Amino acid sequence: MHNRKRLNTFVVVFMAIALILAGCSSNSDKAGSSTGTGSEPSNAGSASSSNGDDPSKGGDTDSGNSEKRITIELMEGGWVNTPTDEQDPFKKWISDKFNVDFKLTNIAAPDFESKLLTRFASEPPDIIFSGDRSLLQKLYNQGVLLDDWTPLLDKVPTLAGALDDAMKVFVSQDGKMIALPKQPDVSNWSFKIRKDWLDKLSLQMPTTDEELFEVLKQFTFNDPDGNGKNDTWGISSAGEGKGLNVVGNLEAMYGPGGFSVSDNKVDHSILNGTHQQFLEFMSRLYKEKVIDPDWYTQSWGQKGAKLVTDKIGIDWYPGVLVSEYDMNDNGSGKAAEMWTNLPMPKGAEIGGKHYPSAPVGGMLSISAKAAKDPEKLDRILRLIDGVAYPNEGYWALRWGVGITDEKVVDLDGGAKFFSDHRNDPDNYRVKFPGAWDYGTWIATNRDGVLQSTAKEAGKIEQKMLELDQQTMNAPTYQNFESFLQLDPQLISDVSKLQQQFDITYILGKDTDYEAFKKAWLAAGGQQLLDSTEQQFKEFGFIK
Amino acid sequence: MSERVYQWTAASIVVIITILSLVPLWYVISGSLVNEQEWMEKGGFILWPEKPTLIAYERLLAGTAFTQALLVSLIRTVLGTALTLSMTTIFAYAVSRKAMPWRKALLFAVLVTILFGGGLIPSYIVVRDLHMLNTIWALVIPSMVDSWSVLVLKQFFENLPEEMEESAKIDGAGEVRLMWAIMIPMAAPAMAAIGLFTAVGHWNAWFDSLIYIDNAQLHPLQLLIRNMFTNASLSVQQNLGQASYAMNAHNRVSIETLKMALVVFGTIPILCVYPFLQKHFTKGMYLGAVKG
Amino acid sequence: MKHTQPKLIIRMRRFWFLYLLIVPILIYYGVMRYYPMFLQFVLAFKKYNLLGGVWGSKWVGWDNFTYIFAKDEFYQVLSNTVIISLLRLLFGFFPPIILAILLYDLQSTFIRRISQTILYIPHFFSWVVMYGLIFALFSNTGLINQIIQQFGGGVQNFLMAPEWFRPLIVSSAIWKEIGWGTIIYMAGLAMVDSTQYDAAKIDGAGPLRRIWHITLPGIRHVMVFLLTLSLGGVLSAGGEQILLFYNPATYSVGDIIDTYVYRQGLNELQYSMATAVSLFQSAIGLVLILVANAVSKRTAGTGIW
Asked: Which chains touch C (3+ CB pairs under 8 A)?
């Protein structure tokens, strides 16, 4: 009798302990176990583990035991778009953490729509990530996407917490959220200038458009790199035959771009003189030959080559320019003294600021088919929130923390440093760079990470951070356009007209700006204005 | 014009055009052998790499799922060419028989398919319903008979001298033996040409695998190349730094060079196939004629 | 009425073996070509809806067509397409033939063998690669302009000038395809009875006369055939190449139907409209081929059938 009682007590106590242990370890499993890095995933990370109302799911060490293993497929246009192999540790990590067989399908952007059309004719992907709102709208209007994200927001607390009004408006249609936007990167792009060239020619940092023009002339004709060859230009661009590309940012000297509000009325840069002044400036650049002759047709890589071989004095780039130059300079470190920010010069009263950042950093959408299955939907939401910044999953999937042996290290001042193991032939992402695409759909530069080949943050890295920080704090125009929903066909039509006129004006072949204005209005500009006016009134930008 | 002048003129023209044809290959090969610094310095057309390096090729062979894609391309090309050549030849022969009833109707039906296609969605639906999605058959069956090749081959069959056919029949050949023993061997040069076209078509194809195949293990080489080459929007460019870091493993080869190396890989194998088929072209020239 | 030919069944019976052989091919055509073609034809008159599939999509009659044709811009685009196609045909048709004949007649087998391996190379490179090369050569800081400047000339803006666009398109297309184009003619030449040449030489005929009287007639069928077929593509003037070469500075001369369509129809799934345009291009192509076929039968005595 004694024995039986003792046995019973023992069993009860044993089970109690087992339950408690199981409960604790599953929590710690999900709440940011140490991965040997300096990064600190916030406590929000643990929110990914439970929906609060399903204890059976929280009761395992291996989150897989009590729930079905499911497959989730994400389709996106990645950075690299090459496949990985069966040993893919990222896929394995997702499988272990979420009990999900994750399929990442990467399609190059021009083929994206074709691929989606065929997939929706049979097996739609579960999740789609894209930066193209009109594509998602088209699909949504066909009824093949999740109807409304609004009621689901509390299931994705991390992602929902990052939403602001502009983002919500961007994805709204008839009061519903048709997609879940990702936070946009804070733009770290600005004009960079060769400080050493300024110094050599005893010039001051230009603050107006005229001063800028003078500097460009001297950069082009006065051999600022001192190599005795006439092989430099003031500024360049990478139009690739499609448009003005980065040199178009010069328009910001004269005022905000596109639609805005002034004097309580709708305004547009084409109509109020801003665009005209810009074109005038560009045509002078072209006429005086202070711009790289291939600015309109060359590719990004081709311009990049000129930047790092001392052929260009000013360009629109993020701070990483310093690092790219340094890489070509055999890591001498001199680049840190060469490039610096050029604050936007002022060409007009209303000018001199940066354009606002993009409204979103891409959007996630779930197919209607996947959304119909409540368990699958649940698992999808859990997954996407689990890997969202700043949760632990983000650091793993984006930077490889805990998956490969790469680390993210904290620096003073809040920034972080990532040394990529690019010289390590055994590193998985060196062998299969397609694995970087696990990060494409979650990446944000708000994570403050500086990526570099250097082992630790030296002079170059510090300079990069400094320049980026400066740029991110520069004054910007108020953001009006991202609140607008305008007819994409009209936009395409007026854009084509504008692109044609822009280049012919710059080349000096057609300088009748008034005729262009009229044509622009007739081709759809007037309709766009009217639509904008109505929307601005709705938002209260116009009383 | 005398024979000599003619020969010299012909030779000069041929040599000039040959050199011009060599230019793209030169461009791609020398571009694939430069290290990053040299690329940055010279850009564009590199006449001669100062410090040639094989790093780009090492990188490609080491990973990036390149070898798998290469294998898929090879299988698809061999399988597809064998299938297509046999089917196309048989059909072309059949419709070249002037006495065969329904011939003109068939020819018209074939002509229509050259101009009118199935389009993206209908083709996909058919392939899906035949359960060929994600299999090698989706890359090989939809293009099994090439209408253009059928018409061309038919043309060649028709142009074969009639005396040959007649003398074979006098010797007692029925339709079957006529086809196997006489006509097809005679049309060997034309078949070699069609075989080459088909093989090249398979080697270069990427769109069908884009829509029919989801399994990355079954993607052919050209799709891989296309994915790498396509840099779409500025936002992708902004992250191109990422990709360029990613691809740029040893920090000494620019992404443009890697692309060139990939192009070289995408082209060299098929160039090697040609010499084998070449002898079939010349075979006909020495075959001699049927003495009337 | 008496038929001079034996009855149909009897005629067919002679070819029973061939009919048997082509059965799988006929099935193939029916299932994999004609059935999708039929669906596609239907889709050109509907507004394709993902959920409805082909049959569930709404019937819109000619709307897909009028959407494109009603725009003023279309006629500029149509004229660009036709002009560029005709230029390609005019300048691109003969070079491969001439080259093939020269190759065939070349006494030096050494040169011929080497050339034949090399000539096809440009065909294998995609337009993306070829454009990269063209850019390296013709850009404002490229090789050609460097040479021009060496000789004291001014920089020519080849890639952005409307006057250079079409010549550049046509000549780069010839460069890319001339070698490949010789293959089919070489095959044809290989099948011409070579004793005719020997006989002609004995008779004292010079090279040009031989070409005119023996070689060209020998491949006449192939020439006419290829010319006729290429008329079918007049309304599709090489979209992939143009998409790479053109830019807003050259839209006025370079924008063709395919590139134009690529930019239109952004509100709905573009699919139905693109299908309608493609149908239009193909229909015109078919008509052209049939007309050309009739003409060539009358003049050259040969046609597609």
From this structure: A, B
